[in-house]
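Lab notes, practical 5.
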Amino acid sequence: MARPLDQIAISETELAPFVNGNTQAGKAHALLEQQKGVWELLRNGYDTLRTVRTRAFEFDGFQIKVQFNPGRLTSTVAKVDAASIKVRKCFLCTENLPPAQRGIPCDGEYLVLCNPFPIFPEHFTISSVRHTPQLIRDSFAALLQLTRDLGSRYTVFYNGPRCGASAPDHLHFQAGNRSHLPIDAEYDLVKEKLGSRLVRSGVLRAYAFEDYLRRHVAFESPDATLLQRAFGALYEVLQDGGPAGEEPMMNILGFYTNGEWRIHVFPRAKHRPAFYFKEGDEKLLISPAAVELGGICTTPREQDFERVTREHIMEMYYEVCVSADKFAGIKTRLASKLAALVA
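Output from the prediction step:
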């Protein structure tokens, strides 16, 4: 029997012993502390996180980290084809949440939930209260709102239904400690060195990154409405020539600092690299999504953690991100649309 939303929503009284301040980010942190005390699966997930090992690979002015995290095996090998999705229960629907799991409602549309298989020291899933497909075109405004509400402590991210979402049938975002991703600390230096400006007006700045292993576009603005229009322009460019009725493959990272958003959009060419499907010693279980594009590559098998090389990382990004030729076309068309937008 489905649990009513008011039974899942945690009360202010339950949060009170763990809250420091009255921000949404503070409440999310408090939720995690409360849930660790009452939900064994979550507690076990964070115990596993303590055993995580990390290697760092240096590139030209930036860094990619590889994390050995055995707790991420389920997500890494998740079957997300239509047939598999059809026969399993949706683990984000309220009727299927574990009895101990509680959440923080957001505007009556979303629930902030603790992720029991964490990558970050604090990791959340923010799911729609309705079972509706994972699509960003009509939920980008929600991404901006959540990024603003949680941005003092967390980055908010989105994985497309065909490139990283383990629940492509249920709209959701994720959030994790913003300082944890290399892309956040590196951004200003990388932008100066590797970013090419697409548009720069008083309230909207857009940059393309080509020599960062991960070709992508970053928007900066304090204006949510303008950001939505800029993202809409990019969405149209990415959708052009693609399969009718399908969302263009993309991952998104959202940051909010000093009254301004920074949104990274990574167009994708494919879901998983070739080495994911190989056999024996040639197989590496790395399934790239937003976190990997932010600079942390997670593998749940120790042998993969030990064997992965700088060349593997370069090969992976080369395969799953759009080609140089395609990105050049994206840049040209997007720059034209953005110029018209701010004219």
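Observations recorded by the TA: The chain has a mean pLDDT of 94. The chain is about 35% helix and 20% strand.
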